[in-house]
Design brief:
alpha+beta; Ribosomal Protein L24e, Chain: T; two-stranded antiparallel ribbon; 2 helices
Length: 75
């Protein structure tokens, strides 16, 4: 299943709504990309499955800072 390895975001339940307003269930998948990122603090590459929102944030603040921010939010 498409799931972010850092944030844990995954597909959501949604509804298709027809012209006659009949609602049928469907899935909204998150945009998960498999990326190989270099972590300067560790001096090596790490392969992760991340959402595109995660990737944009990692570009701004870095991978370890983002992981630290998320663990502080969860605690």
């Amino acid at each position: 299943m498409a799931r972010s390895e850092i944030t844990g975001k995954r597909r959501m339940r949604a509804r298709n709504v027809s012209h006659s307003n009949i609602k049928t269930p469907r899935w909204q998948n998150v945009n998960v990309q498999k990326r190989r990122l270099f972590v300067p603090e560790l001096g090596r590459y790490v392969t992760l499955k991340l959402t595109t929102k995660d990737l944009r944030t990692i570009d701004k603040i870095g991978l370890l800072a983002y992981a630290k921010k998320l663990s502080a939010k969860a605690a």
